[in-house]
Design a protein that fits this description.
139 residues, 2 strands, transmembrane, membrane, 5 helices
Length: 139
Amino acid sequence: MELNKHLLAARLLVIIGSIIFFVLSFLLLLISMVASVEVTINGDSVSGTIWELVEYPAHFSFWISVIVVMLGFGITGLVIRKKAEKNPTTAQMVILIILGIPTIVALGAGVLFIIAGVQIYLAKKVKELEASYSDRVAE
């Protein structure tokens, strides 16, 4: 089974976007271990390393959830990439675009996910057109 150019582009963009998410989450974790970070929730500001933030559960949970969400976005992108190779669907496009919109500021990873979502949609349409063409030729 030969992959069309839209699917190849989507695979590459999702891999790059996922790597950006993984690296960014790792850097956030690493930096917060050695350097002081400032987390503000409802006007209550706390500054310290991740080990010092443990004393403030709301701030600690927020910081850890940001890191986990970035890891989750990267993993979700890789799973969608793998499934799109077999059968590109509109749902995969929608998920990538939804993941991409709030994360545009994450070093362009969101933009890559949005473009990959559009490429998956185009790959789906190309596959449908090829199927309808082969049905017409068979008749």
